[in-house]
Sequence to fold (317 residues):
Amino acid sequence: MITQKVFSANFYAHCHPQEYMNKNSISKRGKVFIFLHFLLNIKCLKFNPIMGVEYVPIEITLELYAEKAVVMPFFTGHVARGLLLHFIQMVDPAASALLHELDVSKPYSVTPLRFRSSSRTEKGYVLDPLFPCKVSFRFLKDEYATYLLSFFQKQNTALIFDTTFQIASMNINCKSYTDIEKEANSTDKITIEFKTPTYLTNLHSNYHWMFPDPVKVFCSLMRCWNQFSDDRVFSKEEYIAYKEWLQKNVGVSKYELQTKLAVMRNKKATGFTGTVTYELDDKESLYNKTTHMLAKYAEYANIGGNKTAAYGQTKLR
Fold:
């Protein structure tokens, strides 16, 4: 009986190794596994007959190998976004078009491409094809993850710029909104690492907010939760009460931050990176646990503006 709430691509290979190797291996980089027919067949992205819960949000991480060296820009968030939208377009052009809509909150986030470079040029880093390149896509609604997995049932390559990448492996982590809420704890301290440039909306101003103010950070996460959660949704009254609670009971006790410029083709934006520690009072309040819950949710949703281009990627420490 499976009790772990996080599903990975290794699960089916572990339970049925011979069948998995016969059906799903490829002769590239040591016959690693990529096609997750088991996950698709039992539709774990909706109702999982083993677990009995829905699995959203979901993170899909790809490990790729380039056929040759290629120059990658210094910041690759927009490259990751373009790659994802291309995958979805190949399965359902209409769904990809919806994800292109402007001024609409998107149900996904991405990470930059992570790779080892052999050298640096004026245009970026030269990716070393001897080492893997990794990228993660996070979905706050599972329907788009299904499109992505459908694409990989038919194809195991991707084109980035003029270079073909072989998809060597895929890892899937799923966790329901219900589980994220249940696993939250009351705490007196939360430390968040901002791994990629992050900026917050500053209404009625031409400038972004360049500091992780707790009210702005956690209120924006609650709005995102409300928009995409298939479980509990906070009422308007609860949102207002939570905002007031944050103002009174949460503050920044320590931070190590710096600003960083990220360039995406002809666009560029500055954001902050580093770590911040929030001190929380009133451990008896349910809003204390809610804050911990939202900090964990941020690992799927990202924080701030331009999340779909890998801005605002965080890790709860």
